[in-house]
């Protein structure tokens, strides 16, 4: 129910209706204006042309019945099963064969890696992948092992070592591969907003967004493997105490702690914290 105002002014008189589609009340007593004849002829031609086009299009598509209201889009787009389920082209709900939301349940990789690095404290990590995402947990773990054990990664400092372990109680931190919806919820627990787009790190928890793992980001300018290496080193770098850094200048390699997911700012893609055996970095920024 809607409320009414205490005072409704009287309606103003309406001007006489000019209905050019209605013939005179007494044919022959009022001549039809030449302009009206031309307008009627144009309208008839337009209607006939539209009908002819619809019939031709229907015949080409193999449609045998034309229903006026249906031509105006009586049924919503969601009536198309591919669009309703988020699998149609351009829908974005299930892009390129991977889910955007999952069960929130994870499978952990078995086994342990060798200890990588020459000296320093040992940082143990565990690897988990969200179930039913089409991603193999052992394959993901092997990629993480290869990145963190590379001599261009964080162990190049000579001040820490890394090892993957299967037991949760033995791990200093866990690296998760999660769907955009699940990763958003996990990151939000620490007050971080990812808009289902970025990855994040919380104390003891590195969360890699599956969408970024599968697609990287537009205009990154490097193969997917480079972005994957970058995102592991970047988020694990936060776990090791590193803060965000800025691009040193146009054409320079992007520091691994630069937020390359949001753009390179004139730098070129770079996935490693050490370049030519030297720690490569930029000026610190306010972000973490």
UniProtKB/TrEMBL annotation:
The keyword Transcription regulation is assigned to this record: no
InterPro entries the record matches: DUF3152 (IPR022603)
Disordered, as annotated region: 1-39, 79-122
Keywords: Membrane, Transmembrane, Transmembrane helix
Record field: compositional bias (Basic and acidic residues): 14-24, 113-122
Annotated transmembrane regions: 47-67
Protein name: DUF3152 domain-containing protein
